[in-house]
Amino acid sequence: MLKTITSKIKGFSANLTKINNHPISKATLIIVLFLDLFILVSIFEGLSDHTRQLTSPSEYIPQYCRDIIIDEDWNDENRLTRTANIVSRYRGSYVYTHNQLSKIHPICTPLYESLQAIKQDQTLAKDLSALIRLRSQATRVKSELDKVRGAYDTSLLEQIAKQNAHAKNTAALKKQVSSLTIKLNTLSNTEAESSLLLHQNTLMMQFYGLIENSASKNREELLAALRHLNFWFPVKRLGMEMIFLLPLILIFYLWNSKSISANRTYQSLVSSHLLVVVFIPVIFKILELIYELIPKTFLKHVFELLESLNLVAVWHYLMMGISIASALALIYVMQQKIFSAEKLNQKRIAKGDCQNCGEHLAAEHNACPACGFTQFKPCVHCNKNTYVLGRFCRECGGSLVETD
């Protein structure tokens, strides 16, 4: 059974690079690889669109809901700014946004509805966006004022020390400081008046009431729901991805089987490549699931434990050991499977090079003039000259491996 599986794998591998047992041309290989790349990109895009139908944790429990209820970091000082930022992003978005109420957790629903009411109030939403712009402008003016004031102080000290003979520069800087100070005070007063009016708005007051009530009552329930969702969402997503991928696997497998049995060589080449391509996202998505199911804080806890025991060096030793083992495994695969001595010999024979040193030889040379290696030996089957390191006799086709 093992031999049967091995022969099937070898036959399938041959279909990837050969047509009628002859290697495909470089131009054909490039065309096939471009097709592989296009299909692979299309599969990943299709997976993204397909899994978007699932409600993600960030959609079911929006970030603002987590901040308000779980983290409890919305307070009297920052809630106006945070609300204004959410509304400002919504008003500045060019992407169509539809009602997602059915996707929101019931605990977050009142907050969502209240925010939607604020967003849909054109006057209120405009005032909140204006507040953000006002604060941004005040920040820029303050930064500019600090720079000019520093330059003014330096110029003033130089003038006092009589290092600056020209007082005009100091006077100009003083005037600029005065102008920026007045501008900053005006912006600050306008911002304070705007903030006061916004705080007194009915919709804003209702939203603030929800924040105060929700944060104290629903934290544990929402936190448990978020943990459950974060654990099971990757599993559900993989299920959706497999629903998308399995029909493609089945189609490409049946196509490949029919092509091979009917000896359709060109279709066998393409279908074999596509069958390999479709398994790439399968492996990738399974590994992604394994990574997400393993708690991402596990390694962090291990490192903290090693730090507490003053054994941080163990971590570095472990990483170096894993790196060495990985490098050894990669070298073995490359040397034994991809660049093996047998494959190297076959390439040298095909190119007419010396089987020992790789020097190119003329057709009439029986031995290599560079290293002296004899290129031919009598075949045990037909007694005619054949390559010393060949697998089969070049005259009768008899196997030379068994006699070595």
The total of helices stands at 14
**On the 0-100 scale, what is the average pLDDT?**
83
The span between the termini is: 27 Å
Assess the beta-strand content as a share of residues.
under 5%
Q: Got a strand count?
A: 4
Stretches with pLDDT under 50, minimum 5 residues: none
Q: Topology as H/E string?
A: HEEHHHHHHHHHHHHHEE
Topology at a glance:
Blueprint: H1 2-17, E1 18-19, E2 22-23, H2 26-51, H3 57-60, H4 63-70, H5 79-91, H6 109-120, H7 122-160, H8 168-199, H9 202-217, H10 219-261, H11 265-293, H12 298-308, H13 312-338, H14 341-351, E3 376-378, E4 385-387
Antiparallel strand pairs: 1-2, 3-4
Brief summary of the model shown:
The protein has 404 residues and is an all-alpha fold. Helix content is 71%, strand content 2%.
Written description of the protein model:
The chain has 404 residues and is mostly helical. The chain has three domains: 123 residues, no CATH class; 158 residues; 47 residues. The protein contains 14 helices and four strands. It has a two-stranded antiparallel ribbon with strand order 1-2. The radius of gyration is 37 Å and the shape is elongated.
